[in-house]
Here is the input.
Amino acid sequence: MTNSYYTFSVEEWDSQALGYYFITENNSVYVVFFDSGEYEKWLHNYPNLLENGYALVVHREVKGYPLVRKDPKIAVTISKILSDFFKDNHKAVLLYHCDFADKKQAGRNKLFDDWEASIQEDIGILRKSVSAEISNKDSEGNATIQYLGFITRFDNPLLTIIEEEFSRFVDNVIPYKMRNRE
Here is the structure.
């Protein structure tokens, strides 16, 4: 019987980062890493996010293999990785923003939506996200939409404080008229 997820390995990169790796059936290498130092400069006024926050990065190494868009094993594998990470990090808060350099941030946010729908109940996670239209226009005159959010455990003992700090963080970083809370 085959697994419903890909086997993954974990590696500590340094005192602030932990990386998980897996290879798909079409030989694409995925890296999921958690970095506690990535957002430090933004979180000085939010002590719980600063102390317990990790940047969550999901990256597909481009190796010339075609991207398989509907590979259900990827979501299940990421679920297993999140579960493994949260097992030893009960107070952890995964902070993320969807990369917008290639204008594919809406698709990345949709992936988060799809993953969340398929894994949320399995591992007891909570995701809060915000989208914001940023006034700086691209080369075609369109406003940029940014997506950011956090993921944590439902049973995180600091959940109320984390939600309050994240809300204040968003209020200070993104003007109210530019955001949509989901």
